[in-house]
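Fig. S4 source data, part A: sequence.
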Amino acid sequence: MKKHSKSQASVVNCQLSRRGFTLIELLVVVSIISILASLLIANFVGIRQRGRDAQRKSDLRQVQTALELYRADNGTYPVSLSACGSPFTYNSTTYMQKLPCDPLQETDYTFSSDGIIYTIYACLENDNDSDRDNTTQPGCTAVTNNSFTVVNP
């Protein structure tokens, strides 16, 4: 068995006691984690906005289908729709069980009709949406300047 001298033993003990991290190393790791977390959170917000916009566009297309069924049965479009969350019915025919609400604000989509033509639109959150309108609808400036409009075919 090999014995260490006193100076060698103190070097070994010194090396064993220095197993922790320095304050600088900890600060570097924490700042890298903070930067990565902020990038991920910013990206996550954009994903949620795009998801809500996809829901809005899907809702409007479903309402459009219900309006076309209504016109096929009655010859004209309705001049108004009931509030979101309530059924879209006429003469005991149900065209939609529940009219959809905006996923963020839980409000009605904007609908206008004279019985011959109709327009229904939603305000979009994503400025880069490929389906956005070329013009801004009234009321869409609170969230963003973009809208998605569906009109009768």
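Fig. S4 source data, part B ends here. The chain has one domain: 23-151.
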